[in-house]
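Cast an eye over my tokenised protein here and flag anything odd:

===
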Amino acid sequence: MAAPAARPTDAPDWTDEPPVLSRLIERGFADQSAGQPVAAATAYCQAARLGSAEAQYLLARLYLEGVDVQHDAALAANLLSAAAQRGHVAAQQTLSDQAAQGRVSAPSARLPDCIETGGAVVMGVISRLPPLPPAPLIEPPVPLEVVQRFVERLPQDKRRHAEMIKRLAPRFDVDPRLALAIVRMESNFEADALSSKNAMGLMQLIADTAERFGVRDPWNPEQNVRGGLAYLRFLLQRFDGDIALASAAYNAGEGAVDRHGGVPPFAETREYVRRILGFYRSPKHQPLM
């Protein structure tokens, strides 16, 4: 009897990789969860070819497990080494575990055929990748289970703040996933965060914004979040749900967006917008129903 197909135990990490990479990884996770490791390998292969360290790691795990996908410890070591060199913590840990068990193969320049040829190695045979389904008109936001896994792994104090944000955001008609992405960027869930520009708390409110949205004590976590959500809701309404413009305005002010007719040409703001779009995945706000 064939061994059962390996299934992942956790949703993918919530990263700010380009959405095309994140979606391939999440597609692979869905296929692997459904007991279809070959289909998962094709999705991970595509993301690995595009440079995703997370996909390199996940593909390496499939090569190590060798269920329906060709077992190849040497190729797994190459993929793990590549991901580890780029700072992928789980890849580093897996290499360490393999070394402790005496199972590490010496890394080389050889890459899996799926990366070099665009196919997936299935029991030693190249299988061409199936075409991706057509993209929807509006890409969906990051899956809820990906964000929930991130929240559950936060330290206790930060997790408490994240759960509060999830609870309050729908009351302001804000998608909790976007609110969490903003707070992750602004303060990394540190309630006592203070910026060089005197922005305060979880949502990094400056004094004028706090006063504008009725926040009496910006150091109170719930008041801070309520004020930040009210401001974010205002920006989403003002910019018709455009995530790039609303996040640019949250970072640089709506006046700066108006003056420049779009995302301002500030390096900090453009990087901020890039990361928020990477976290949220959709260019349009899509509040939970």
